[in-house]
Amino acid sequence: MFRVDRIANSIQPLAARTFSELGLRERSHLQEWIAKYPSCLGEELLIIQKEFAGFSDTQERLDLLALDKEGRLVIIENKLDDTGRDVTWQALKYASYCASLKTESICSIYQEHLQRTGQAGVAAELIADFLEVGDLAEVTLNRGLTQRIMLIAANFRKEVTSTVIWLMNFRLQVQCFKVTPWSMGDELFLNVEQIIPVKDTQEFVIGLADKAQDEVQTTSADAHRHSVRREFWTELLKAMQGRSELYRNISPGTATWIGAGSGVRGIGFNFSAAGRYGRAELYIDRGEQEENKYVFDWLHDRRETMQAAFGGKLDWERLDHRRASRIKAEIETNIYDPTEWPRMIEFMADAMVRMERAMRDPLRTIAPELKARQSGTELVAELQEPDS
Q: Domain named DUF4268: which ranges (predicted)?
């Protein structure tokens, strides 16, 4: 590895080091680095526990437990300069222990981690935000036998790599990452390189009959929910015709929400429905938390005028622990009970028409300011780019 000296137009070699000679430790250094920046492993991961020891009849601890964007558990085992001979067997044991964890247990594990590390938020909501779903009740975490394993070390013994490659033939999802510390003077660098890639995700069967049966039942329930939601959205969209042009070109889907643009980027008029509620909302997510909260606060300062135009009280949810914010009108109901649909549809359609009317002028007012802020941000970023 080399450091580029742009002034001298040359490169300078970095020195490959070992963790032991640098005095770096597995738990207090390598593990913490990955926990704080899990995307160094090439994808978005949500760390839900460190030093997880929630296994019955054993005192063993796995290094890091995470969720990927598909809701699968990821077992992360870290070693420093050498993997040792037994790391594969150790990781397989942890994966088997975690195979029985269900959504409720995973939320409890993550909530305990949040409390222990002094982080704010509700685990179920943070997981839903990470998975980009409206309600965690609509997904199932740790489905079937989909657990993944990531092995991280400076050097991998042949018996480890050959075992991993053999296991991959049975569709076990394993990745190996080689980590190498480098130095130049007092500066330290870390290179993370995936040396054994995982194959395309596919289910495989090795046992756990009860969990497999749960998977069959869950899959059937999911198909039913998708069908119900598509039918509900079809009826709701029919009810919107003649009331508003907002949803004229929107098609029904199977998700828990459908949305229409407001004319301002990242701000949408959304319908959302689940087993406990139905709502019409203005959803604010322009990609940056700070900007979302600015828009919310700007609208909130004018809430009396907007609520008067709406003809009732709105729920203002800044959602400080999440990136987005929303303003909503909500009714307690159940989308999976068709007898509730007439009441739900009438409430949601009427609320959306009144919300669009109340928000139209404020959004037109703030739109030029948001464009100016975006242009200013882009200009600053352009000026900060190094010369090519």
A: 228-361
